[in-house]
What we know:
5-stranded antiparallel sheet
Amino acid sequence: MDKIKFKQAVDQILSPHKFVRNKNIWILKSPEINKVISVYKSYYSDSYYIDFGFIINNLELNDLKMHVFKRLGASDYDEQLLIDRILSLDSSMLEQERVSQLRSLIEGQVLSVLERINAESDLLVYIQSLPNLNMIPFVVKNYFRLTSHKNVKG
C-alpha cells in the first residue's frame, strides 16, 4: 500500500461520518467545537501517526493545531505493536487487511471519543475525566477556568 491509498482508506472511513478532508486533516465542523483528525507521515520511516481532538470555536488557536488533542496509541504493549504495524506501510500486511484493521482502529479508538463530544460542555467533562491536565494547553485550562491562582506562577 502506498501513501495515496492509505489516505484514501482514511478518507473512506471518515467521509460517512461527515468529516471533510483538507490535505492531511479531516474536520467535522459544528457551532461550538470542530472535531479534527490529523494523519501525518513520520520523518524516520514509512509510517503514520494519527492525532485527533478538538478546536474550540470561541478560542483563538494561535500556534496550536488543536486545543485538545490525543495521539492514537495504546498503553498495552502488544496493542501498541499492532497499531504500529497497521500504521507502518513497511509492514507486510495485505492491503485489504490493513484497511479493515485501520477502520476498526479509527472507529474504535478515535470516532468513539469524538462522537461523544458535541459541545463545549461535553469537552469540559472529557477534559476533567483525564488523569491529569498536563497535555491541556494553558489557554484552554484558563478558558474553562481549570486553573487556580495559587497554582499559577508569575
